Amino acid sequence: MTSEKQLLVATRNIGKVREFADLIQDLPIKWLSLDDLSIGLDVEESGETFQENAILKALAYSKESRMLTIADDSGLEVDALDGRPGVRTARYGGLDLTPVQRYELLLMELNEVPWEERSARFRCVIAIAGPEGLKGIASGICEGFIGLRPKGSEGFGYDPVFYLPEYGLTMAQLQPSAKHQISHRGKAMAGILPKLREEFNQEK
Fold it and tell me: How many percent of the chain have pLDDT more than 70?
């Protein structure tokens, strides 16, 4: 009989924890957030790349919790904005803005940009670490366009304004099962999954 193992996701965003859990349903994992463990440590995302930030968080929170930990850094790169908001996606416009205010700001910045120049991508890097150090890294990209207006209620963050031409829908209009197959986080998780399986198989 397989016992449930605990895995810390280095986030306070419950939507992100649920998404990770949805992506991997065949492993006996109890998914824990920073708030579940009452971890007050706030790791500054001081890296210049998504990979640097993911590694920083995975190592710091694994050391703090003494647990196997996964951390991701992900964001939106808009070509017409020279790759912004990039690594500052979660802080775009200031820390006091809501997710809706952030994508409204983005739409305002792109107000005069024609459709063919609104290309963008979600990028995600996932790092996995244990108290003894870094164990693996994987990345994923999802290409699309920034829509003219928000549509859909699924997902979170910038999903309502991220349009996928091959579906004719925004990310927020996709059902979770469809989103996981094409999302940046889904692709990154698929890349880190072999390492995760290896880690849990080592524990009896």
Answer: 97
Q: What is the set of domains in the chain, with CATH numbers?
A: 5-202 (3.90.950.10)
User: For residues 118 and 104, what is the distance between their CA atoms, to the nearest angstrom?
Assistant: 15
Q: Are 124 and 140 in contact (CB under 8 A)?
A: yes
Give tens-digit pLDDT for 92-125.
999 899 999 999 999 999 999 999 999 999 999 9
Q: Rounded to an integer, what is the distance from CA 29 to the centroid of its chain?
A: 19
Average pLDDT over residues 76-95: 93
Q: Where in the sequence numbering do the catalytic residues fall? A: 73
- Which of these, 159, 129, 96, lies nearest to 10 by C-alpha position? 129
pTM of the predicted protein model = 0.85
Residue 76 CA to residue 90 CA, distance in Å, equals 9
Phi, psi angles (nearest 5°) of residue 128: -120, 135
Which ranges constitute the DSSP H helices of 66-98? Answer: none
Q: Which two tokens stand for residue 32?
A: 């824990």
